[in-house]
Amino acid sequence: MLRDRWLFGRKTGTFTLQWHLTNACPFHCAHCYDRSQREIPSLNEANRILSDFIHFCRRSRVQPHLSLSGGDPLLYPHFHELYRAVAAAGIPTSILGNPISRAAIEGLLQIQAPTYYQVSLEGLQEQNDAIRGPGHFEKVMEFLANARSAGMETHVMLTLTRANAAQVIPLGNLLRGLTARFTFNRLTQVGNGRLLQPADPASFAALLGEYFTARRENPILGFKDNLFNIVRHQHGRSLLPGCTGFGCGAAFNFVALLPDGEVHACRKYPSPIGHISRSSFYEIYHSSTARSHRRGPTACAGCPVKKSCGGCPAVSHGQGLVPLRDRDPYCFIHGPPMTASPGEYAHA
Question: What is the pTM assigned to this prediction?
Answer without folding.
Answer: 0.92
